[in-house]
Amino acid sequence: VSSALEKLLQRETTKADAVQELSPREIEIIKQVAAGLRNTEIGNKLFISEGTVKIHLHNIYQKLGVDSRTQLARYAQEKGLV
Known about the structure:
Elements: H1 2-21, H2 24-34, H3 39-46, H4 50-64, H5 69-78
Helix pairs in contact: 2-4, 2-5, 3-4
């Protein structure tokens, strides 16, 4: 039981750390990427240009140390963002 509780607490702490680094818009974009949307679709859904989506993704990749959509989606799942 204690190891399950420790894992839950660690996950929540890590999630909080990631959320602190990311803006609300970046978290929104991560959720859309994890859902499998393309940049154009994300832009349309969030009412921003595809170029703005790309800029956000670049910033997200830098903050989280990932370099692909697949890694970003995996990170989001591991950290409980989606």
